[in-house]
Amino acid sequence: MATDSRIPGFYKRSIDERRAEIARRGSVDDATIDNAFVKGLTPEIADKMIENVVGLYALPIGMGLNLRLNDRDYLVPMVVEEPSVVAAMSNAARMVREGGGFQGEADDPITTAQIQLWDVRDPDASKNVMAKAAELIQAANEAFPDIVKFGGGAKEIETFDRGDGLFVVHLHVDVRDAMGANMVNTMAESISHRVAEITGGRVGLRILTNLAERRCVRVRCAAPADSLATDSIAGPDVRDRIVEASLFAERDPYRATTHNKGIMNGIDPVVIATGNDWRAVEAGAHAFASRSGTYRPLATWRAGANGNLEGTIELPLALGIVGGTIKVHPGARLAMQLLNVSTARELALVAASAGLASNLAALRALATEGIQRGHMTLHARSVAAQAGATGAEVEQVARAIVQAREITLPAAQRELAKIRA
Ligand code: MEV
Question: Which atom of ligand 1 approaches the CA of 245 most closely?
Answer without folding.
Answer: 9
